[in-house]
Amino acid sequence: MDRRKIEENIFKTLMLFSTFVVVGSLAFILATIFLKGFRALNLDMLIKTPKGGYYLGKEGGILNAILGSLILGVGATFLALLVSLPVVFYLNLYLKKNSRFALTLRFFLDVLGGIPSIVYGAFGFTFMVFFGLKASLLAGIITVALLIIPIMTRSMDEVLKMIPFELREASYALGANRLETSIKIIFRQALPGIVTAVLISFGRGLGDAASVLFTAGFTDYLPYSLFKPVATLPLAIFFQLGTPFPEVQSRGYASALILTAIILLISVLARFLSRRFTKHGI
Amino acid sequence: MGSKTHISVKNLSIWYGRHQALNNISIDIPDKKITAIIGPSGCGKTTLLKSFNRLIDLQDGVSVGGRVLVDGEDIYAPEIEVTRLRKKMGLLFQRPQVLPMSIYDNVAYGPRIHGIKDKKKLDGIVERYLKESSLWTEVKSRLHSSASKLSIGQQQRLCLARGLAIEPEAILGDEPTSALDPVSAERIEQRLLDIKNQYTIVLVTHILRQARRLADYIVFLYLGNLIEHGPAEKIFNDPQDTRTQAYINGRFS
Ligand SMILES: Nc1ncnc2c1ncn2[C@@H]1O[C@H](COP(=O)(O)OP(=O)(O)OP(=O)(O)O)[C@@H](O)[C@H]1O
Ligand SMILES: [Mg+2]
Question: A173 vs B89: CB contact, 8 Å cut-off?
Answer without folding.
Answer: yes
